User: Fold this.
Amino acid sequence: MANNILKGKKGIIFGALNSQSIAWKVAELAHAEGAEFVLTNAPIAMRMGEINELAEKTNSQIIPADATSNEDLENLITKSQEILGGKLDFVLHSIGMSPNVRKGKHYTDLNHDWYNKTLDVSAISFHKTLQLCKKHDALNDWGSVLALTYIAAQRIFPDYGDMADAKSLLESIARSFGYHYGVAKKVRINTISQSPTVTTAGSGVKGFDEFINYSEQMSPLGNATAEACAEYCVAMFSDYTRYVTMQNLFHDGGFSATGVTQQVIEKFGN
Ligand SMILES: NC(=O)c1ccc[n+]([C@@H]2O[C@H](COP(=O)([O-])OP(=O)(O)OC[C@H]3O[C@@H](n4cnc5c(N)ncnc54)[C@H](O)[C@@H]3O)[C@@H](O)[C@H]2O)c1
Assistant:
């Protein structure tokens, strides 16, 4: 069903770890829609080597970068433009990691060094990327930058721990940088707030299996899949969404606007 809506567009896709990753699905669809891009991930995440398969499939090159390192990001942004032969039109930030969540630390008993790491990897890396793109004037006018987020930024989901704080910061960065980059270069910046999805990062959250079922039953359309998320990302990278910026866009089958569903309320009947 490809329509070539990204024909001629160049970009960077962060965060494809394996075929379940949301970024993986975005890369596959962006390729089918005519985009050219560089794939990147943390050097440590590449040890698994699965990203090579994606690079081959999408005819793209890989540049390793730890998204918390300004040096790595600078190299990525410069080399990507050399490889692609020009400035960028889109960037996908699909990165999240919390050592506290991984190690089962309760939100009221965080290790604060790890907390800093959570914020650095999952949110400040977005600011670093944007700041370096702006410094190197790496994005074309009307370029589109997206980061993936979760509704725990607005409402408490107890097992999401300090990732909730990281997502709040991430969404705020999209708004603040979106203003400045919009005024300077007409670059648009948004976050997409995705349904719970079975991926390596998603499944790391305690009670994920029960939770994904709850979310499914609380969403009039059901949970949005990773493939559907990729479709939304591609639409946001295209010229059909040029005046959307500084928004947190819910892609969640209606979950965020639902108080309760009939399916859920029936569970509480006698
Ligand atoms: N899966 C879900 O339920 C869900 C729901 C809403 C939002 N999201 C968000 O979607 C994004 C992608 O996650 P996913 O679900 O596809 O899982 P994933 O585990 O496939 O992707 C997370 C990626 O972050 C990368 N990463 C971690 N530390 C890094 C670093 N220092 N430098 C560069 N990359 C680093 C990992 O290598 C991995 O590729 C994340 O921001 C996540 O929070 C996921």
